[in-house]
Amino acid sequence: MTVEFLYPALANLYGEAVEMKYIEQCLPDATVVKTKVNDEPYFAKNDVDFIYMGPMTERGQEIVIEKLSPYKERIIELIEAGKVFLIIGNALEIFGDYIETDEGEKIKALGIFGTYAKRKMMKRYNSLYFGKFDEMKIVGFKAQFSHSYGESEDEGLFENIRGDGLHPGSRFEGIRRNNFFATYLLGPLLILNPDFTKYLLSLLGIENAALPCENDIRTAYEKRLKEFENPNKEYLG
User: What is the model's pLDDT at position 236?
Assistant: First the structure.
């Protein structure tokens, strides 16, 4: 099995460096490729099972769009083939049509999904999030300067229970197509949601996986879930 971390030195905000370490612990026998900004992505010419990319600065988004644009068709091919992608935070916006700045400039993105993002750099959006994925309850956090619009509900990832989705008023958080998963949720997401982590591992052919530190993680998840289900819990944003 091959796992590729795209641009880990650039795309590692909000604790996502820890998320990458956790993925490595979950997949101790995998070959892990850490693609640097000036490297050709490993997926361009090689088979890969799991591609991960985390959140980054707004300037980082522009760099990554430039670096990935030559490989748009290959990314689409991998998505259609059912390869597993996990795209976190504002990395989600790179796969939409464009990102609109405060000044109204539209930065062309990869155009794989029909979404577009709008930045408001003077207004950071912070929020808790509580949703569901199939029968799983999902918890997480948001810290972002932008929202995405133009989503198709057929490709929504998490259904909202409390908290906003891709944008205020949206019923869904994130994007899913086949085994491509993209979400604004931070956490780190996999450490906060052990059942979702096991689901992703099952897509990689690992059934009933024993997660690293699973007892502690599950205890923390159950405690957090009880807090998020409390109707008096305050949500920001």
Answer: 47
Q: What global pTM score does this model have?
A: 0.95
What CATH number is attached to the domain comprising 216?
3.40.50.880
Containing structural domain, residue 48: 2-229
Domain count across the chain: 1
180-183/84-88 β-pairing: parallel
What is the reported pLDDT for 96? 98
CA distance 80 to 95: 15
Residue 127 lies in a domain: yes
Helices (H), the chain: 16-26, 58-68, 72-80, 189-192, 194-203, 214-229
Q: What angle do CA 218, 161, 204 make, to 5 degrees?
A: 50
Contact by Cβ (8 Å): 107, 72: no
CB 97 within 8 A of CB 114: yes
Q: Looking at the DSSP assignment, which residues form a beta bridge with residue 139?
A: 130
* In contact, 11 and 54? CB cutoff 8 Å: yes
Evaluate the omega torsion of the peptide bond into residue 55 and state whether it is cis, within 30 degrees of 0.
Answer: no
Q: 105 lies in a domain?
A: yes
Q: Report the chain (237 residues): mean pLDDT per 10 consecutive residues.
A: 97 90 96 98 98 97 98 98 98 98 97 97 92 95 95 94 94 97 95 97 93 96 92 62
